[in-house]
Amino acid sequence: MVSDWRPTASLEAIKARAGLLSTVRAFFAARDVLEVDTPQLARHGVSEPNIQCIPVPGHGYLQSSPEYHMKRLLAAGSGPIYQLCKAYRDGEAGARHNPEFTMLEWYRPGFDLSALINECLALFGELFPGVPSRTYPFRSLFADATGLDPLTASDSELVTFAESHGAPDGLSKSAAVDYLMATRVETALPVEQLSVVTDFPGWAAALAETRCDEDGLEVARRFEIYYRGMELANGYQELTDAAEQSRRFRRDSELRGAQGLPPMAADALLLAALEHGLPACSGVAMGVERLLMAQRYSDQIADVMTFPQHRA
Amino acid sequence: MASYSTSEFKSGLKVMLDGDPCAIIENEFVKPGKGQAFSRVKLRNLKTGKVWERTFKSGDSLEGADVLDVQMQYIFSDGEFWHFMDTETFEQKQADEAAVGDAKQWLKEEDMCEVTLYNGEPLNVNPPNFVELEIVETDPGLKGDTAGTGGKPATLSTGAVIRVPLFVQEGEIAKVDTRTGEYAGRIKN
């Protein structure tokens, strides 16, 4: 055990991280996006049932993303902002996950989703020079890989198909789609291409606006970007409607209850900020370690972190 | 027995799956976007040696398996069972042919073996990496041959047949790597 005192990242990887952070800061400085700092320890955590915050007794929760606080800054009139910070998610540990990781998150008032996608691709142009990109709507990408339309197939069709491809029993429809996305769809994307996936199903909207697609079915104004087999970015055209946000908090709370997860009270401060008025904006989050892994052809997050969970 | 949640899965952990004891080889955490997280797990069935791949929802759990690896001394075989002894407690265990498997051709009395116990009974026997066994039968070789020209077959005291260099003679003690079944030298008396 005592031999484990050394970092898992090479000195070269540690320098690459410093280089990446300075590239990111220069990118935003050139675009007049303000670097901000928000708390990592706060009274509320995120309500989403698929993200578990780490509680800190007497203080609240370590933040799983700076989203709620950054939206309060936007509502207070900050203009475009970005943040590089640590984020914490309980139980997320594996080859590509560490419970404590580094996040790059930014918000662009006045940007629609496609404007933000273009800005992400401009940043990736600096981090991954010369890599081509291609955009896919979630619905057709999923249908091509599985033969099932995720928006119109019945719950039992999707669940049965997932089970016949190794999924555990008893999944909900959305979990079955998640399973197939992770095991069959993402893995079929070309490796040496930045793959932008847009128009996620409405149920996967989280804090994104939704709209109706050409068939009148609800899709989320949300995108993800994949590269070298990894999800690098997750962006939203942000929900600005306080009443709808309040409904999603209630739905999350019900889902948490049904799944036996610890409850998470709705963040009244975020709701108050939304009621005051969040400017129409788009926002995106990226895992900094993932960016480094993609730059360095690594499939182990430990290669790019000084001291991952088992050595921290 | 304790049960283990997916977040505790790690290589080497022994768990029960479909009624059989298994060892986790690999656990991959998969999480699509903001969706449901999964653990994709590779396990070795300790009874059959087969490798299984299963996916679990994060937070699911498996019962631990009462599986223990212990060093035991091989004592003798009565033809049906192979008998092993814990040299500290002198407790004896008998392993059947399924548990001994391929190890039986390398077992020499008094050698220490790694015995995997499941619910207290031998499930698996691993012979030492190197064993020293007498050559009981081999053709007389040509004098002066030292290079590896393919060698010749030699029968060991346990019945195992290995290939040895031509200069090795009956009555000599061969050192054998049990992981490959290859000749690894001879022991000078």
What does the model show?
The complex is a heterodimer of chains A (312) and B (189). Chain A has 312 residues and is of the alpha+beta class. Chain A has helices spanning 11-30, 67-75, 113-127, 138-146, 155-164, 173-185, 242-258, 268-277, 288-295, and strands at 34-35, 41-42, 54-56, 60-62, 81-88, 100-109, 133-137, 194-201, 210-212, 218-227, 230-237, 281-287. In chain A, helix 2 (67-75) runs parallel beside helix 8, helix 4 packs across helix 6 (173-185) and helix 5 crosses helix 6 (173-185). Helix content of chain B is 2%, strand content 51%. Chain B is built from one helix and 16 strands. Chain B has one helix at 97-100; strands spanning 3-5, 14-17, 20-30, 38-45, 51-57, 61-63, 67-77, 82-85, 92-95, 112-118, 121-126, 130-138, 152-156, 161-164, 173-177, 182-187. The mean pLDDT of chain B is 90. At the A-B interface, helix 6 of A face strand 3, strand 4 and strand 5 of B. Chain B: Its main location: cytoplasm. Chain B: The modification N6-(3,6-diaminohexanoyl)-5-hydroxylysine is found at residue 34.
Largest sheet geometry of chain B: 5 strands, antiparallel
Low-confidence stretches of chain A: none
Poorly predicted sequence stretches spanning 5 or more consecutive residues of chain B? none
Helices and strands of chain A: which structural class?
A: alpha+beta
As an assembly, this protein is heterodimer
The DSSP helix count of chain A reads: 9
Largest sheet of chain A: 9 strands, mixed
Number of strands of chain B: 16
Shape of chain A: globular
How do the helices and strands follow one another from N- to C-terminus of chain B? EEEEEEEEEHEEEEEEE
Biggest interface: chains and residue counts? A-B, 29 and 23 residues
Label the structural class of chain B.
mainly beta
Cα gyration radius of chain A (Å): 19 Å
- Approximately how much helix is present in the residues of chain B? under 10%
Straight-line N-to-C gap of chain A:
12 Å
With helices defined by DSSP (H or I, 4 residues minimum), what is the helix count of chain B? 1
Average pLDDT number of chain A: 94
**Content of β-strand of chain A:** 15-25%
End-to-end Cα distance of chain B: 50 Å
Radius of gyration of chain B: 22 Å
